[in-house]
Amino acid sequence: MNRFSWAAVACVLLAIAFPTVPHAQSLGQDRVIDTKPAGEMQRLRTTTAFNGWIFAAYGSLSGNSGGITIRKSTDAGQTWTMVDSYSGINLRYPNFDLIVTGSDVANLKLFVVGVNQNLTGNTFTLYVDRYNASTSSYEGSPLNLGASATPILDVAIASDYLSPAVNAQPYGVGLAWVTGGVAGAGQVKFLASNDAGATFDAPSQQTAATATGFHRNVSLAYGRSASGSNGRYYVAWDEFTANTDTAGRLFTSRNVNDLNSPLIAPVRLDDLTAATAGKCNTPKIAVHYSNVDSDASGPTAVVLANCEYGTAAATNVLGFYNKRSHFESIWSPLSMARVGTGNQKNATIVYNSRDSTFVLTYLDAIANALVFKSNDFNLTEPNAWKLLSSNYASTTTGLAGAAPQIGHSPASGASNFSWINRGTSTDIAYFDSGARSGLLDIDDDKSVNAITDGLLVVRYMLGFRGAALINGAVGAGAARSTAPVIEAYLRSLAE
């Protein structure tokens, strides 16, 4: 890291410190994952490996020809290479998701779950493809549910590889999907592999719910804590009275005991407050996983959604949380964004295992900006989410309708972001390497703070060493608290 990089680091940290300075900085350079002609890029998903490698997949549609392209970056999003790309005439791939698993490069696996829609026969096939994530070679399809006339409207995938579930060898991979059709026929399905995705036993799939209306979106996450040491998968989905409705109901469920156990009865979330009852859609769920309990003795779960709430039924990002989620269905409402003036939507949230925080992003459609916030996993102040950037994108154009994605590097704690920017002639899939929170947490107190970490960087740049470097600049409970240790860490960043 050269002197100019040190200056950039210091500026970012100092900007975060003072509320009078707008948080509209691009956290990292906006790098191009890929481009397509305007209107052809349909969906974008990313996943980050244990070592910081990033994998991205996007859908494309041109006339009656649809496809999926998968790309990889091994240098924090600076450059991207092809993993796979496939398409077909009279075929569409409307929904897909991906996850990269494994704790060493030799056993790194990439799983892509997708829906193949055959326009000729109007049938839908659910499949899982597996790749060697190191070599980008295709290894086969451990799951292929035969063609059916029942529409598959959304899919999601998650894994417990960072904190393996009981009965998983060596870890598990979970799938969730929602089906549609006539009113009352839609279902929410869940299926887990307990052998690292080598096999999926299709007959063992579970039904989380059968709709009294229509399903549209599903989200999946894994959670574990000291008291909930078996580990469980958590599902969230929406349901609508009519197929054309935009305002609906939100539900969640989870495994009873472990990844192979049945799912509990659905818990409705949107009606926890009268103001949001029947007014929400597009839920996203995240759950904390570690060997530590929340202060309520369990794993904390958070569900965010678009809710028509406030003045003129403006769309706001609202949510719900449960800090004892593996034992009790005790959920509380959570307010994430401005209420009344709208228009904030399309939130995505993940648990950052390195920093023990929840991190999220959403579209502020009034400011045409992509917002980045965080909170500790205990949600000590559940509605006081820390604003880390009011727009990490380098532009405010082309963001209409953007559904930004957020991920993090388990090794460094670095958050990363991706989104589709729609121009007049070109769709661009962008990646921002974001706030490298693990690297910028100089004193390792699990928080990036300009008046501690930023001050340490500035003092180090100015030649301060020993007590002059650290006095008054180390956070409470910091793991790196002495001058020699902090100097060594800062020196390593410069190498």
Account of the protein in words:
The protein has 495 residues and is mostly beta strands. The protein has two domains: 26-436, Neuraminidase (6 Propeller); 452-494, no CATH class. Helices cover 9% and strands 43% of the residues. It has five helices and 29 strands. The protein has helices at 3-17, 437-440, 450-461, 467-470, 483-494; strands spanning 30-37, 41-48, 54-62, 65-73, 81-89, 91-92, 96-101, 109-118, 123-132, 137-148, 152-159, 173-179, 187-193, 206-210, 214-223, 232-240, 249-254, 267-268, 280-287, 301-308, 315-322, 332-335, 344-352, 357-364, 369-376, 386-389, 405-408, 415-422, 426-432. The strands form seven sheets. Strands 6, 7, 8, 9 and 10 form a five-stranded antiparallel beta sheet that branches. The protein has a four-stranded antiparallel beta sheet with strand order 1-29-28-27, with no helix packed on it. It has a four-stranded antiparallel beta sheet with strand order 2-3-4-5, with no helix packed on it. A hairpin with a 5-residue loop joins strand 2 (41-48) and strand 3. Helix 1 packs antiparallel against helix 3 (450-461). The longest helix is centred in the N-terminal third of the chain and has 15 residues, at 3-17. The radius of gyration is 22 Å and the shape is globular.
